[in-house]
C-alpha cells in the first residue's frame, strides 16, 4: 500500500429498485407506502372513495359502462435510507480489500443513493463503531468522495466486529437498505445474531472474498501465515492433498453461509477479487 | 541443589570448551522461538487453514533445526571438546610381572653353547615368545623386572604395551654373571604391594637356572606372598645336560647346593600359592608353556583405558551445516499467498489509459 491511490475515473451511479415500499415523508425516487396524488400510477379508484376531482381520469371514466367517475391513484415516491456497514476487523486487511474494492463499492453506492435523492450513511466497525470512518445519513454532493477517502484511510485492525451491532442500533428506525460488507469469517451464529439485529432492514450481505485463500493456492511449498486478527502464526506445508482439503473447506463454509442467508431470504452479493460494477448493477436492479 | 552440582561436575568433568565467554551466545538459540526464516503472510482467519499435523510437525522441526544450528555454531566457535580421560573397562587379563633372568647363560642356545647359524639363543627365544605373549594379552598390566647379580627393576606395572615390548626386546642384550633369583622374586612381589585391584596377579619367572636363596630372603618372600597372593609360573629354560627341576636325584646328593633349581621349585611349591613350573628344553616347549600360562590367566580384570582429548568443533559445525541446509531448503520451498490484486495497481493502470490515448 505505497503510493497514492489514484481513483478510477467516472464512477457511474447505478439505479436500484426495492422490492418493498419505503415509508417516510420525504419525496424521493422509490414507490412508497400509502396513496398519493403524484408519483407512480397505481390504480383507478372511484371518486367517492378518493374525492380528489383534480385527478379524475376522464378517459377511464368515459370508458366505464356504469358511468362512474374514476380517480387516478398514485404511489408516492419516497426516499429510502441507504447504509453501508463495513466490517473493519483485522481480517479485512487481507489484500487491502477495504481501501480497494470495498471503497469503490461504497463510493458507487453513495453516489447512486445521492443521485436518486436518497440519503447514505457509512458505518465502519471493528470491535467498536469507528466514528472516524462513519458518516451519518446525508445526501450532500460529493459524498462518494468522502466515503472513498475515509475507507481508503481506514486501517482495519482489531479483533472481531462487535461494532456492527452498535451500528445496527444507530440505523434509522424505519426500514432501510443496508449493505453489510464483511468477509463473514466470524462464527456463523454470531453472523446470525447480527442478521437478527438487522431484522427491520433490507440487508444485502456483501461477501468480501479473496481467491488467494480459496482457490489460487500453490500445490507445493511452505507458507507461513499469521492470522490478521489474532496474530496466531501457522506454518503450512502445502501439498495437493492439503490443497484439496483447503478448497473443500472453503466451499463448505461458503455453502453454510449461503444457507444462513437463504433462511433469512437474503441474497448475498459476492465481492470477490475485484469490484465489478456490472454485477452490482444487475443485483440492484433485481431489487 | 546437591544433585545439580554433581550433574555439573559430571558434565564439566568430561566436556570442555576453549573459549567459555563465547558460550554467552548460547542465548541466541532462543531466537528461532521468536522468528522464523519465512516471510509471514497474512491470512484473514487462521480457521481458513485446515488442521494439518504434518505442517505442525514440520514447523516444530524447523524451529528445532534453527535452535540446533545456533547451538552447534556457538559450541563450535567455543571449541567444544571432550577432555582426555580414562575409562574403566572390563576385560580378561591379569597383572603380570615378567621376571627375566639376565645371567650370561641366557645368551647361550638350548645346547648351552654360543648360538651359531640358525640356532637361537635362549634369551632370543624368550624374547620372541614373550613378545607374542604380550601381544595376545592387550588388557594386561605388565611389569618387567630382571635379575642377575642383583635385581633390576625395568618397568613398573603399566598399560603401555609399547614400553613393555621395548623392555622385552632388550632382554637379549648380553647378560651379566650371576643369578640371584631370591631378590629378583622379592622385587617382583614388591610390584604388587601397592596393587589393590581384585584382578589376578601373576609372576612369570623366566630363567635358565637358579641359585641358592638366602634364608632371610626366603622369609621375606614368604612374608610378601602371604600379604599379596600371586600366581607363580616358572618357565625353566633347561639347557641340555643341566639337571631338571622334576628329577629326584639319588639320596645324598639332594642338597640345595647341588640342585638349586629343584630346591627353588620345592621352595616355590611350599609358598602355598598357585604355582606351576614349566620345563622347556627347546623354543617349541617354551611356546607351549606360554600358551598354557596364557590359558590360565584369564580372569576378568578391570583396567583403565585412556581416551585422548577429542575435538568436537568439526562435528558441531557439521551438525550446524546440516541444520542450516535444512533451513535453506525450507526457505527455497517457500511460497506466498498472493492477494488477488492490490487496488492501486489496477486503478493506476486505468488512470494511465486516457492519458496515453490523449
Structure description:
The complex is a heterodimer of chains A (287) and B (358). Chain A is of the alpha/beta class and 287 residues long. Chain A is 30% helix and 25% strand. Chain A has 7 helices and 12 strands. In chain A, the strands form 4 sheets. A 6-stranded mixed sheet of chain A has the order 7-6-5-8-9-12. The model of chain A has no long low-confidence stretch (mean pLDDT 89). Chain B folds into 2 domains: 2-38 and 52-84 and 309-352, no CATH class; 88-306, Rossmann fold (3-Layer(aba) Sandwich). Chain B is 42% helix and 19% strand. In chain B, the strands form 3 sheets. In chain B, strands 7-6-5-8-9-10 form a 6-stranded mixed sheet, with helices on both faces. Chain B has a 3-stranded antiparallel sheet with strand order 1-3-12. The longest helix of chain B has 26 residues, at 53-78. The interface between A and B is large, with 56 and 40 residues.
List the helices and strands and how they pair.
The complex is a heterodimer of chains A (about 290) and B (about 350).
Chain A: E1 27-31, E2 40-46, H1 58-63, E3 70-75, E4 77-78, E5 82-87, H2 98-115, E6 120-125, E7 129-138, H3 143-153, H4 163-170, E8 177-182, H5 188-197, E9 202-209, E10 221-227, E11 233-238, H6 240-263, E12 269-272, H7 277-285
Helix pairs in contact in A: 2-3
Chain B: H1 2-14, E1 15-16, H2 31-34, E2 41-43, H3 53-78, E3 81-82, E4 85-92, E5 95-101, H4 122-136, E6 141-147, E7 151-158, H5 161-169, H6 181-190, E8 201-207, H7 215-227, E9 231-237, H8 260-269, E10 275-280, H9 283-296, E11 300-307, E12 310-311, H10 313-332, H11 343-357
Parallel strand pairs in B: 5-6, 5-8, 8-9, 9-10
Antiparallel strand pairs in B: 1-3, 3-12, 4-11, 6-7
